[in-house]
Each structure stands twice: as structure tokens, then as C-alpha cells.
Fold this protein.
Amino acid sequence: MELSFPHPVAVDHYENFPVASVLLPARLRRPIALIYRFARESDDFADEGELPDAERLALLATFGRELQRIERGEPPGIPWFADLAAIIREHGLPIQLFHDLLSAFAQDVTTKRYADYAGVLDYCRRSANPVGRLLLYLYDAASEQNLQYSDAICTSLQLINFWQDVAIDWQKDRVYFPQNDMHRLGVSEAQIAAGDTGGHWRDLMNFEVQRTRELLYSGLPLGRVLKGRIGLEMRMIIAGGDRILEKITAVRGDVFRHRPVLTKPDWALMLFRSLLS
């Protein structure tokens, strides 16, 4: 799985959207980098290497215990968690959001299929939405309406990552398409395994892309509510998600042979659109 807000961040893991980019005020780059480190390292526990599931869950549990130490006001056992504790205290960050991230990453270890869209959304609520919410707290902009806008953006970015990375997730024995959508439209897991875009594959992809685009657009006002460079960063993130959806549509849903990524011309287009929006 991958996160989503000024992210999915560049580095190898997140190719689509920047974290702690130059658009952000300098005072926020270190707090955002620490939030990213927490998310990245814990996500790697769930995803990277050849560890057995029990060891992955044990590693995630170590981060959970570190959070509990922060909650009790105790010195952390992992040195860099002292810096994380400092920004949590300074900015009043809800520590439950960090626990939610760990819960989602643990779910990646134990849950490989989702019966319906509600199940996928619940996963996104914990895997992606906490990052956006934490950033709003850093920006001193965590109103209830802004949190709702952020959730819509973050969930849609997570979904975009799923539709973009169908083949990659299959290699990890993960399928994020709601099972009832696949059954209703007559798409089988055998098609995913074979990279087969025949039959109703395009119908499935079009359905998920359209639903995801509508959710992304429902968060558009946040790009204007947030002022200055932060607002521009948000509009760039939204434009990046929308551009990936356009690319999925352009290849008729064939993300097996044409995995959509953002290129330098795309970034220029995103900036243009963001300045106009």
C-alpha cells in the first residue's frame, strides 16, 4: 500500500506526489519529514523484504509501543521517536492517527481481499487519511469541513494508487478491487494474473476510475481554502491524481503494459492547471 498527501512521495516508493516539497514553508518540512519517516518505515515493515508475517507484525508492534511511550510521557526506546514526540506535542497532533496508520499496515499483512467498497474505504480511512489530517493540524487548518475535504482527497489518492498498481499488488497476493464489483462486472482474478484486459476489464476500470474521480473532485475546495504555497501544493496534488486517472483512461485500463506515471511534461501541465484552478 502507499500513502497519500504530499506524497505519494517521490523517492522510489512514491512516484506520483511530493512530500515536504519546496512549495511548503520551511518551518513545516522537518515535521512533515518525520511523519513521512514514521509512515514509510512502518509501511516497509508490512511490504518490503521476505520476512514472515509474524515478524512483520512484531515490527509494527514495536512502533505501537513507542507511541504508547509517547502517550505516557516516557522516553522512547527508538532515538528518532524523541523528535516525533516533540512535534506531536508542539503541534497538538492526535496520536490516534499514528495508531491508525499502524493498524492499516498490519491489515496489509493479514487481509488480501475486500468484499465491498465499504471495506476498501475503511482501509483507506486508516492507511491514507491520517496523513492528510496530520498535515492539516500542522497547518492549523483542521476544521471539520477541511478534514472532510482532506479525507476525500487522501482516500481518492490511495484508490488511484490501487488502480495504477494492480499488477504490482497482485505479485504481493493483494487485490484491492471490491470483490462484489469484480463479480458484478464479470472480471476474474485469473485475468489479473494473466494481465488480460479482455472481456469486461475496461468496464471495471472505467467504473472505479469514475467513482474515484468524483471523490477526488469533492475535495477540490481544500486547494483554495488553504492559502499561499500550501494551497498551491494541495492543488498540485489533486492535479497529479487527476492526471494519473486520465492516463489510466487513455490506455483503456491496461495498467499491466502501460502503468501510468507522471513525467516532466505532466508536472508542467499540473502546475498550469493548479495556477488556473
About this structure: The mean pLDDT is 91.
